[in-house]
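User: I'm curious whether this sequence folds into something compact or stays loose and floppy. Could you predict its structure so I can see for myself?
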Amino acid sequence: MLIILKSEATQQQIDHLIERIEGLGLKAHLSQGTYRTVVGIIGDESQLAGTPLEAIPGVAQVIPVLPAYKLASLEAHPQPSVVNVGGVKIGGGHVGMIAGPCAVESYERMDAIAGAVRQAGANLLRGGAFKPRTSPYAFQGLEEEGLKILREVGDKHGLPVVTEVMDPRRVDLVHEYTDMFQIGARNMQNFVLLTAVGETRKPVLLKRGMSATVKDLLMSAEYILARGNPNVVLCERGVKSFDTDTRNLFDVAAVPLAHTLSHLPIFVDPSHATGRPDLVPACALAGLAAGADGVHIEVHDCPEKALSDGSQALLPSQYAELASQLRELAKLLGKQLSPAPQPARAKSGT
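Assistant: Here's the prediction. I'll summarize afterward.
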């Protein structure tokens, strides 16, 4: 960290600053030029947490040398991280394909969709049991019953499951049934929730907030990493824009940007980014071409009857065509799809 002093800073102020730094167990390196005086801080900068250096008399600017998201940064981990979700590898050249309906509606429907996406090449199954909706009158999910259905169907088809957790008080419950937590866009900065999932060591799919920068996303990932959970996968799912022709703005540049800043894998979610099934295939391919480590797509066998977000879901046949294209593109890019585990013996419906 570098501290630039004001041109009129007195020697007394400089001495006070150095004394303050050394009092925290760090070393201060003073560099005095003709026009500028700079103090470099050497040592564990975490000791400065909560210390408002800008408030010390004589200080003009504080410049971090390392990013605030230290554990998520490339400096901390120069090689790409590989996250294992129920035997499916994500990152480091391994591509994940998450597919399934927005919400778990029934065993029969979940079973049919899971069979279709598994056959198409998906290696992870999604489905929401707790649904955060804009309207309090909209379908809110089947809760624990939905988790049981998702788990049973996932096991039957050999697909590790991904589902959203919204409340720190439900982390233990969701942990029992899922292979990967999903933190939705509205909860990206729910720091209590991030801390709770960070203490579980279970993989986390962390979606970018609707008005968040990529660095904001990495700072949220830092909360999870700082609690000892290294298994974080980022997700670009669109940000707010003035354009009303799509649900959100699909920020494909966020993918290579995240890779220049962090070692963490990153998915793209063109379903939520566009809100339009006719745009999902092109944006999914663009995301993978930009360097994404996986694609997250909503699939429903009868979108017009879906209880949540049916308007943006692909039909199983449409997903199968796209999945084939994604596999070919992955090969061209020198990546591979991590195979899903072998299906368990079929079980009776719930």
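Summary: Residues 124 and 159 are 5 Å apart (CA to CA). The longest strand covers residues 94-100.
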